[in-house]
């Protein structure tokens, strides 16, 4: 929708800064954002085109054209055009309303203001008016208007720190460098707009807005074609009958009708009769069906919007159904594709526990020294006496603060390491409060913990780090910074303290750091390893902490070698890595940290519940492999109990194919693996895969990175990937691009024929959200791009459970019951005309009054079926959540499919036979109670119409599982409405006003006052309904479904006390996982030591190697006084129990 024609791929872009006239000749896109589908000019043609993609709408248009031909029309044209226009208008209004809100959201973004340099002065300009080449000035914490090139910054060396939360949900900061030729301009200039609007990376990765239809809609298209074929067959039979009748019997009436011989050919008569019956029998699929479907979907959408259990009070955000056409698809989801950051996690790290010198801190003990969980009932440590404490930090174990007060040297060294060994930058806000700018959230959590416990990181320069230790400023000389990378999985700093001692402080993955320890640490290592396993069992991310005292002479020799290695042209990185390895040995273990990457509330329970519902969850994230694996374990998607975890990390197509082949051999055995590793997609292969999937025993997981995924998505490999992935319980794709996310969704969507759902919170998820059958946006603090592109939105991942298991399941259940009943009643209603054709000379005469035909679907039976379609439920919402297995019928498409349609069709045919032949047999050669002949056409029609209304009303009463006042009013009110309209239309008064339109004068009063008529109606009703009651009773008694069993239990619960809800039990895994799996990046060490990210500050008042008194009375002394009473309540036993 962004461009009318496909643009050629740009190789280069020529831009003149601040020269709009020059840049306009290249016709670059403007900066206006479009997520809407229509505008004023395109709405009517595009919307009509979309609506007439429905076979039914085209079918009704065809019928309307037929009804305009008087020679073949038995019904007036308005009976079709009014409902058709009504349906198209209602759908168009709904679509226009949806798109209006998209336009409204677009305008909110487009009308944001930014400062643009125009005519040599800064002016406020709306985002949509920013042009390629404009120079834009951005302030701190301001949104970015377009893809920008950094010209200069107020920060030193042309650096700026950006947060990409609106793009990918990441709240940690990224560094960007200004162009070297413009970086010295300082704050005078800021950024140059390179790509605007649809050319920006965000919009390029968003994909196109697609027209989505549910599987029921697609099935309906097929069924309408089948019904039309069935209709043609009926028309042909009746047309042949008419030709025969005209040839053998009809010629006897020609004299009567003043026809000349041969004026009406029997074949031509049959041809006209064929089209007449096509018009009469078209009510098998009435247009009111589609009106009712839209109304039901609208009602379901409002239920989602109004659900208080999906309202997030933290941000006053309700759930929102942004479309009204996909609700029942929510009840058929088989695959969920989820982003990680901001969707599963909050991207907030919190310091939970630590192990120092063999003792765990962070656990709370009761009076008998029994370990208990930390809960809100436990009093957290009061850090209020520390004026620089972070007020958001909470820690409930007072023992650690007690150890600080008592001067435990190991605790001091542990906290000192946390305050020194990191890449955090500090600054003060306008209120004078210390603010940390962190490159990775886990580092921020560790430095904040040290800060609250008395070791406050204050500032840094390229050569020094200043820490306030228990109220005293201490400046350390930074001698070397051994940076983190994915191979080392650790970082170290070498500092000289004021006493002149040189120390190496290191933190990193325990599996790596433990190999560097001095042999004397063996006992402590065993104890710390047990603690790490305990931390991991609680889903925490761990880091090992160690240090080493360095000899001055040794360090100088090592540093000289490091300087020499840094100047090498060849093998520079290898030499530096070797020197890092050399000095990071014989470390002394201090302990370990345990950090929690906060999952969103209820994520674990939601994933467990969805898994029980046989919904497979794939995580597609741009994060590193270690990060994704950690979150997988934290969510219990990955567990140590799994039979195998396959990691695909090949760098070439051959390597990826081989790794997939080996994984398949492990999963199925040698016989199931394809010999050449490459199989084309065929129906037989997919059917075989589904059979194999049923026979797979055990739990498996697949983890694949983006580089390998690019090869795996190639045509000759993707079958192997899909086959393996679908056999696994969990699939994690890491380091994937937005385009790859969409490709993975399309792969499963197209080749598994499965209903897919994508959920995300950032702009990098938009393409995936648009590709899936259902797209869900998380409306959090990460921006609105995902929400704007989504079909549904809410604030927390946990609401997905209720959306699918309750609203989705109910919507599917209700829509299927609605369709089954609607087809049943309309076959019963319409096919009476077919049987009547054999008794009326195939003349295309209608068996009912025309007003009854017009009002049957619009008035007499519309409200009861709407009430069932909107309000019905087989089990309560709580039982739907407690028994996720109830979701399975939707995935298997059991409640409405081709087989169900034929059953409804057969039921309707049987009812039509009873409706026609029971009254026909009863009326045949029978006189009324008054002795007069009653077997007239009008009495017969009234009797059949009354029987039909009563039969279908009783049937919907039997079909209704959940009764409300509305159901009662609509069902029995519709019956009452039928009789009131019937007597009105058959009255003398209405006949006197409209004699041509209401010919059935007095018939209702005459017919329905006779007992025999009511006996016929009763017999017809019993004959139509009793077989259904018997079949359903036997089915429920002999082979009840899970829904039937739970419904019986619900009834029992009303008589006894409620049963306890059966929530899925969740369990943490026990694998240790390093905290360095998170967003830490290589290169920050070099940035810090170069000084490029440092602001110029006033020189310190004291030497860098001297301790200076910061306050006459340190805050730690005040803390000690305040906590004397608290500390005395704890056990004084400080020994370590091995």
Automatic annotation (TrEMBL):
Principal location class: membrane
Annotated segments matching region Disordered: 1050-1077
UniProt EC number: 7.6.2.1
Top-level enzyme category: translocase
Transmembrane helix is among the record's keywords: yes
Catalytic residues in the record: 339
SUPFAM superfamilies: Calcium ATPase, transduction domain A, Calcium ATPase, transmembrane domain M, HAD-like, Metal cation-transporting ATPase, ATP-binding domain N
Transmembrane segment boundaries: 223-245, 265-291, 818-839, 851-871, 901-920, 940-958, 970-993, 1013-1034
Residues the entry annotates as binding ATP: 339-341, 443, 484, 507, 541, 621-623, 735, 741, 764-765
GO terms under biological process: Golgi organization; phospholipid translocation
UniProt catalytic activity: ATP + H2O + phospholipidSide 1 = ADP + phosphate + phospholipidSide 2
Name of the protein: Phospholipid-transporting ATPase
